[in-house]
Design a protein that fits this description.
homodimer, mainly alpha, Tetracycline Repressor, domain 2, 9 helices, 77% helix, DNA-binding
Chain lengths: 180, 180
DNA sequence: ATATTTCTTGAATGGCATTCAAGATAATAT
DNA sequence: ATATTATCTTGAATGCCATTCAAGAAATAT
């Protein structure tokens, strides 16, 4: 038990790496960010990362968890807002993380861990959406299907560039259908 | 002009490479298929590919064009079918090309040529969808928005594993909304 | 002070897309 | 028929990458 200080410093160092990795991955995406680059930005040797993380996908997962935690926090601050506002703010949130979500999709087939993370994330968003929809008066029987539709629309919006107005138009159209 | 024979053989060889590349890319995806592997399957040296194609993304584009051409052909054979049938058959089509569409999305940020291909493909599908929708009685003013919604739903279905029944449920739900 | 665990690193390793320079083959010109 | 040129092919680099390895430094425990 007197390894406390050591443990603490280890955790801090790991967080430091996650921090610089997050900045780089958000900015340049997974494929355009090398481990060497992350290491350089963190002021350590390239292979030192492997003491703290199993591999590059592991770094990505840690970063993703941070991004999601942040998004959740922002979302919880909008509890009173209508669904439309929540969705737009969620999109803005995720968008600020660059291509990270696209990166997740493209790495699902390479890494079982990313696959698992992706699945967990999807069911989480799905549950959130269903409860939102039911809350907003959608027939519970259809809420699950509508949730999936909404998620795919959101993913589509995130994966493709859009003007803010166009994005809002599309979201509004989707919501109109769902609430019709 | 008497270089005819040479030109013909060149075209044939290029097509041979595209053919084996298509099989490999469909089966194993972009990242898990190396140029060396394609070359081996085509019975040539690894670097010979670079006489016929600029780079790996160029190979991907040629393969994509073949896949799309095939899908278009199948689609045109369903001219009389309802939209639902067309969509399901389109999904089945694209699905048989493995992760190729996901690969496109993940390479958009790496290659301007892939980016351009992706944009062209999207507007094409969009135009097709709009005319389908208008034909099927959707208000023309909303057809464009609905087309985008449908495309994103289809992309979502393709990017995520689904049981056939679930897929149909989701498509039906989307169509119900669009035609409501 | 010594042994043990924890952390760090320089130097591999193996895989990859791509390039280079030189050779082979075929088409054309003389 | 021979020489010249354009077309195709290849073995051998090059440079980048994630990841591993073995050995050393630092902190902790005995």
């Amino acid at each position: 038990m007197p390894r406390n200080k050591r443990h603490l410093e280890t955790k801090i160092k790991k967080e430091e790496i996650e921090f610089v990795a997050m900045a780089l991955l958000k900015q340049k995406g997974y494929d355009n960010t090398s481990m060497a680059e992350i290491a350089r930005a963190a002021g350590i040797a390239a292979n030192t990362i492997y003491w703290y993380f199993e591999n590059k996908d592991d770094v990505l997962i840690s970063v993703l968890n941070r991004v999601v935690a942040q998004a959740m926090k922002e979302l919880s601050e909008q509890r009173e807002q209508p669904l439309r506002t929540k969705l737009l703010s969620l999109i803005a949130q995720v968008e600020s993380s660059g291509s990270l979500m696209t990166d997740v999709h493209s790495r699902v087939s390479h890494s079982p861990k990313i696959q698992a993370w992706h699945d967990r994330f999807h069911t989480m968003v799905e549950q959130l959406s269903v409860s939102e929809l039911v809350n907003a008066g959608v027939n519970p029987l259809e809420a699950l299907l509508d949730a999936k539709l909404l998620i795919y629309v959101i993913e589509g919006l995130l994966a493709h560039p859009h003007q803010p107005e166009e994005r809002e138009q599309i979201i509004d159209q989707a919501l109109k259908h769902v609430f019709a």
